[in-house]
Amino acid sequence: MSQEKVHLPSKFIQSYLLSVSKHPFSEDEKHVLYRLVECFQLDKEEQNKDFILRKNTNGYVEIILSLKEGENFIQTKKAIYNLQKRMIQHEDGERLIRFPFIYYMGIDKNTNDIHLLLRREIYEVLLHLPHVNQKKELEAVISFRSIYARHFYELIKGKNKPITYNIEKIRTVLELGNKYMKMNNFLARVVEQAKKELDQNAPYSFVYELDYENKHNPQGGKKKVIGITITPVYQPEQLSNIPSGQKISQQYRDDVERDSIRIVLDSVYKFSGKELEKLTNSVLMNGGHSYLTQLLQSCKGNIEKAIEKLKQLS
């Protein structure tokens, strides 16, 4: 029996992917979705990319993804498993059609590259979202430089009432682990950074208030922060200010280069902490990977000599 090519109505697939249902997408599932949209946009613009996309003649699109720095492999894998369980179904007077959102997944255990196979209809829907506001909203989320802006956006999107978390819970929700344990760092590097991006680029942002411990502090000074109350703020006017796909693509390439340089400086040259961040900026200003290549050549492959010159650069 030959395989029949069936084209589902794009509005049906789009409504399934982007509407709120009894089983909404988890944050990790949405992150995979955003990555796919990002890949499709970059491929359309024929930009340099760290993924492979192939379209075959059988109605499927193959994507090979490499995880970005900071993306959790186990969480991403679990999200893809869950997306495979999500079935898209369409029935009319002639036939019933049912297939998974992600048709196939494979993982290269040597590189952790993820191989995905999607039906062409899903690819076309994500590439050509017909509703302007939905497309702009996806572009907004993709454009966030901070992963925490994306986390906060998922918390507040579509809500209008204050949400209160204790500090342990909000840290868990934001997947901070052992990062930014000091309250000042948490507020400056996570909360304020996310709020700044949402204020500038997203249709939803927030204001917040800190909740303090009622106990008297015998040592004086400020009371201990035990919680945070987040109040969503809807700002639809920002839909017209979301960066264009071209700007997103440039920003994406800049982020990829920054992350890859940071990895080289960390794994090869053993820099860390503030020195690593400062040196990453200096290397970028001096030519990025081209500078690192010329530096190593000038040192005749001697890592120790290269490290000394990098220290002078910082």
TrEMBL record:
Keywords (alphabetical) are: Plasmid
The Swiss-Prot or TrEMBL record annotates one GO molecular function as: DNA-directed DNA polymerase activity
Read off the Gene3D superfamilies from this record: Winged helix-like DNA-binding domain superfamily/Winged helix DNA-binding domain (1.10.10.10)
Initiator Rep protein WH1 domain location: 16-157
Read off the Pfam families from this record: Rep3_C (PF21205), Rep3_N (PF01051)
Its BP terms in the Gene Ontology are:
DNA replication initiation
Q: Which family does it belong to?
A: Belongs to the initiator RepB protein family.
- UniProt protein name: Replication protein A
